Amino acid sequence: MTAATIQRNRPSGFRISKRVLPYLLSLPALLVCIGILIPFFTSVVYSFQRYRLSQPWARQFNWGDNYISFFTDPKFWNTLQVSLLYAGITVVLELLLGLGIAMLLQKRSTLNNFISIMLLMPLMTAPALAALMWKLMTNPGFGVLSYLASLIGLQDFRWASSPSTALLTVVLVDIWVYTPFIMILLLAGLRSLPTQPFEAAALDGVPRSFVFFRITLPMLTPYILTATLFRLLDSIQQFDIIYAMTQGGPGDTLTVFQVEAYLNFFQSTNVGRSAALMIILWAITYFLSNIFIKNWLRLRERARGQA
Amino acid sequence: MASLELRNIVKRYKSQTVLDNLSLTVADGETLVLFGPSGAGKTVLLRLVAGVIDPDEGKILIGGEDMTDLDAEFRGVGMAFQNFALFPHMTAFDNIATPLQAKHSSQGTIKTGVESVAKLLKIGHVLSHKPRALSNGQKQRTALARALVGSPPLLLLDDPLRNVDAKLRFEMRLELPRLLADRGATVIYVTQDYKEAMALGDRIAVMSQGVVKQLGTPEQIYREPANVEIARLFGDPTINLLDVKPSRDAKGIYVGLSNVQVHLAGAHEAAVGRDCVIGLRPEALAFVDEGTPGAIPVTVEAETPLNEKIVTLARTVRGREILVSRPSGTPGQSEGRAHIAVDSKSALLFDRASGERIGSKNVVNLRSGEAA
Amino acid sequence: MHEKEKDLIDAFLRGQVGRRGLIKGLGAMGLAASTAGTLLNFGQTRALAADFDWQAHKGKTIKLLLNKHPYADAMIANLDNFKKLTGMEVVYDVFPEDVYFDKVTAALSASSPEYDAFMTGAYMTWTYGPAGWITDLNEWIKDPAKTNPKYAWDDFLPGVKNSCAWNGQPGGALGSEDAKQWCIPWGFEQNNITYNKGMFDKVGVSVPGNMDEMVATAAKLTKDVGGGVYGIGVRGSRSWATIHPGFLSAYANFDQKDLNVSADGKLSAAMSTAESKAFHKQWVQMIQESGPKDWSTYTWYQVGTDLGAGASAMIFDADILGYFMNGGDNKMAGKLAFSAFKANPAAKAPTPNIWIWSLSMSNFSKDKDATWYFMQWASGPEHALFGATKMDFVNPVRQSVWNDEMFREKLNKSYPGYVEMFDVSAPGASIKFTPQPLFFDLTTEWAATLQKMVAKEVPVDEGLDKLAESINSQLKEAGLG
Amino acid sequence: MEHTSLLERILRGIALALVVIFFMFPIVWILMMSFQTNETILRIPPQLVFEPTLANYTALITGKLMTAAGTLDIAFMRNLCNSVFLSVTSVAVALLLGVPAAYAFARHKFRGSEDIAFTLLSFRFAPALLVLLPLTLYFQKLGLANTYIGLIWVYQLICLPLILWIVRGYFEDIPADIEYAYRIAGHSWFATFRKIALPLAGPGIAAAGLLAFIFAWNNFVFALVLASADKQPVTVGALAFITSSGIQYGQISAAIVLSITPTLALALYAQRYLVEGLSLGAVKG
Predict the structure, then answer these.
(1) Contact D182 B103 (CB under 8 A)
(2) Between 1.10.260.40, 2.40.50.100, 1.10.3720.10, 1.10.340.30, what CATH number should domain A86-306 receive?
(3) Taking CB atoms and an 8 Å limit, are D104 and A26 in contact across chains?
(4) pLDDT beyond 50 at D283
(5) Fewest C-beta in 10 Å: which of B40, B160, B356, D219?
(6) Which residues of D touch A293 (CB under 8 A)?
(7) Position C32 pLDDT exceeds 50
(8) B32 contacts B189 by C-beta, under 8 angstroms
């Protein structure tokens, strides 16, 4: 081929520069999200105001007052405590359960694949509707779960309507809905692990617990991190299930952040306090996700380095 | 066809400089082998030429034309990857056909083109298979076929034999030179195997840490390696390296090996009185009878037949190990005391501190990449 | 329509033929009663058209935001007549009550001009009014050019009408001279007892006459009816809705208030009095002994559903809830009875707090005059009568409907005791809350406190003191205390 | 795992059975309730034997609900269609925007790419209400309130970061050489993206899309706040059976069953993508 024929292949007309291309590709996604960033900042402004919709004349900047008042507000500390407790319990239990189920289903077989799809059904049930389902099932009269509880001697088990069991009940619903999410991610992880280390360990007669803690878990860590991140941050913001089941009650048992903020906005129309609550929630999630993602990126680099 | 010229190429990744002000010219139709250890920057260089990564500085000219800012698809080169880089979701046929499809060739042309190159590479019977159904050898040939099928004027082959078994590598090493010669293309061939380099290269560029340490014909590289490192890389078994301090007497320049004065032929004046390393190719040593002038007494410790030659491990009286190689079937000694002699013309002297060869005739101007 | 039928209807409208005569006459002509109702309304439509220019806004479209409720259903069933009368188009969005008020708040707080009028409760206007989301309707009601002369604003029950008017001053009296009419009452609920006659007879108890008796009766019912039936259904969810029905009606009967208003207009919590504490103790005890097990999740739906399904023996809640449970395919349909309830033995009469479903006009409406046309029709005497007699539009807010013999007869036939109950409690019926913008803060926290008391997380006395303290500090923070 | 004792296999079987019971029981129970009238549902204690009726489904599908207060019009099928439309369109838009962006983040380490990628991901974790409430004001001004376009935009809050983050991992797992080879063969970057990157990341994209679909489908609050009744999804629509004449438990159950069906059908259809797609190694990044 001569220089002339190469010449013919030369690009003609408009051409996207290599340097511009990645920006061009990510710009639309970025723009769509930036549009959503503007209302975010509006909320930040609200959070620094004394702002009740029912008293528009009294609206003014009070700077940090909304935040400062949280320090002495037992309701706020209760909210913080309940939110963290709820998120902690659900994530830990779902992780353990999800990992266990994923290991049960690890082997590829038609039955296992079928079961794993079936187990996804709770995830496909909208949390708002799932809460409704569980409300029906825990009805003290005709609710089947109350009936079953009474059969095993738990007469009068009050599920979500008693402060001592309300948390347990919503956690149960959360587990029911979201364990499949963790299960499917970890199952995917387990099935993509290389087989050699396990075969080698089996040949050497290494104890199973050793294999699990020293081989399986470390190799699964990136998956566990991803799953935990998504769940933890969703869970600390839980709204649908709790609101549909108890509206934050009984008493103040379940007034987690989003429920409290929702009630503050829609019932009390106290926009300033509502916004401040959510900014704090956002700060918590941002902080947590930052930690997770830093670790996740480091793990990934390491995994890439080995490959 | 196309010549290739690289001018003052610099490539950095983060703070690390991978290619440092590298310049290189490859003539039209020439096969240049890039040789060097991993991390030397060979693959990066190849990708720069292919256009899939951009240099930070410098220019790339193909066929005399500046292609530095041109994307890969406009450069008209063919490339085969070390890991084959086959498209896993396409059949071997479709894999090979991609360069022809890019040219919008007709179905007929594509079919003929693919089948003829497949026949040449003896993979005509697996064209309908997907890569995962191919053996390593077949994968390698498919990758090669894909690089060749468009008859590119410039072929970039990135260690194509690296991931195939020894037998196949041996076969291909024999086949490839003819194949490449037939295409008449300019070829840049990356390898870590010195035999491949010797067998295929019109010239070899030895790279290390982002610079070309030596550029020359295989003969030059072997006979007159620029430094100890290159001397060690070329040759199997590896070159014997012994610390010496050359002196001069009436008969000329000599070194002391096991209390025997061995006189060297050639221009080694510069080495006199310096701490040096002498490089003796195993095949430049031969067993001799006791009493032959310059015979060095050794103890034979082991003998290994290696294909067409026999390699003997011996130990000098000072306890230094030395390898001797001789063609199979020639007489030698397999145990006990023996004497060896040095082919004084082929002895190489290197400066012990810098590793540079002393008294070279063809000192390479490394900066410009041109042989002096 | 046949001429004869037209003549008959016109005669009725001229007052020459009584209602029963009309129905009989039409029946003789082979028309079903329901068809007769529609015809009647059609006739009224023609009659209305004679006195007032209903066609002034012909061709315009208005949009409503409605709660999923029988009142809305009744209106929708009659809507064609409005369209014919005015030549206007009406479109509407219906949302389930669970999310309805959130939807209203979302739409109004965004200043959305989408909805021209919407259903609301009187309590909500204490937020919407000061927020500037809704319009003072006096401007239209009192303008003869804009309001049909037969609209008869005086026909509305005064207690109900006044409960929808507030001057916007925190603690200001409802229905005062300077009050703004934030909404027009549509239908309302008094809180009384609905009970299961069969269960009462089986156990041998009679309808309780005061709080002590109610606690005792409910306990006896829970113990003796069997089959898991509990004695009394009241609401208990963590919401304002738990406070306003039976609870506040009984509370007010003891002359207790939610807030005190000082001479200079400052508000302070009033629920930590000794009387209040005594009442709270009784109420909490009643729920613990005889309430539904998951009381803390109970909204009016659960309260009603349980009564209708025979899971509870009585409720102290909205009378219309009992009304609905006595019909349809409910298991206990036809077996329920009604009674007014006076919690305080010393009180002269029942003092039910009321809930008023009303219509408000959005301040963001683009055509308020046209919207008013719809509102005056929907709250007018003709539609009220149609809804009450042909649909389940109870309780109507117009005296003329309560005077209507056909309506009374319908109630007496299928809902024995309902009319008497209404007549006994209506004089004392009004909103017992102090109007102020923190209404929902106060009531939600009150409900949460009740939940804690019932769960024995906090003693009643201490809980009320804490509640009062918290409310006082919130009032101060909002500049009201 | 090859040599498992009989005891262990039995224990595994029991564990699996318990898991299946826990997760499937509520679904089965709701399915049973959906074939019952309110009367049989409300029996105490609950019973397994009943005479099945299709009345609930008939009511939902025809849109006519018989109650004590007469016949109510319900728009459940309309809600269902809205859910399908909103979820499908949102996921499609998210894929259209997210996949190229994910490709850019995976293949081109441009200045600030990590920061931008993290910022995009963090949207996934912003409390929905925080953004939603002021958004109603802006939507009003922009004329986006009560439009499908506005809703689909807000749904990107759920779909886009999820797709971006997962798909990016898949692209990173494709060896760069494969794409280089295609470029060198003479194809443009776009052809490479279309013919090489997309097909190879296909199962992963499908899995991410499916997950995004599930999350979009399950959303409750966005449409409620931002749109009028004719655009509400099935999650809001199912609440319509709590009526003044009692809670229609049978219809709620039928509504829940109907609302799960489309996602389930999709998941069954795409099941090989879900587990296998995710196990391509992308979730680990």
Answers:
(1) no
(2) 1.10.3720.10
(3) yes
(4) no
(5) B356
(6) 118, 121
(7) no
(8) yes
